[in-house]
Amino acid sequence: MRYCLLCPAIKLDKGYRALVDPEDYVTLNRTGWKVKRSKHGLYAIKYYSDKGHRKGMYLSRRIKGTEKDLIEHHRNGYTMDYRKENLQTMWPKDHQVEHQRKRISGIIGGKARLRDQRI
Question: Using an 8 Å Cβ cutoff, are 87 and 59 in contact?
Fold first, then answer.
């Protein structure tokens, strides 16, 4: 899987962009997506109010329609790439094992992944 230079990118806050498939761009680009930093990387999220409580919906869950008990894994490790071919639905335990395997083999360098992911 390669980085896509011609894929449309949704503008997020703080100067970040999220890569999406062309068929998803029109519907997803209408709403205000933000960047959320976690210990695992940067993620696109949209906040909304539900009965007076602030809730968030991750862009990956919006694209794939993922159930709450499952996780969307970014296959290429780039958390701003939301193309369907890069998203893999996994159980949380399998996701944890996948990341442990990559850390042991040296594919992911821990906090080094949090470096600037602006496009």
Answer: no
CA–CA gap between residue 38 and residue 35 (Å, rounded) = 10
User: pLDDT truncated to tens, each residue of the chain (119 aa)?
Assistant: 555 667 899 999 999 999 999 999 999 998 789 999 988 889 999 999 999 999 999 999 999 999 989 999 999 889 999 999 999 999 999 988 887 876 766 655 444 444 445 55
pTM greater than 0.85 (yes/no) = no
- Judge: domain 9-109, CATH 2.60.40: no
Q: Are strands 71-74 and 53-58 parallel, antiparallel or unpaired?
A: unpaired
| Amino acid (1-letter code) at residue 63 | I
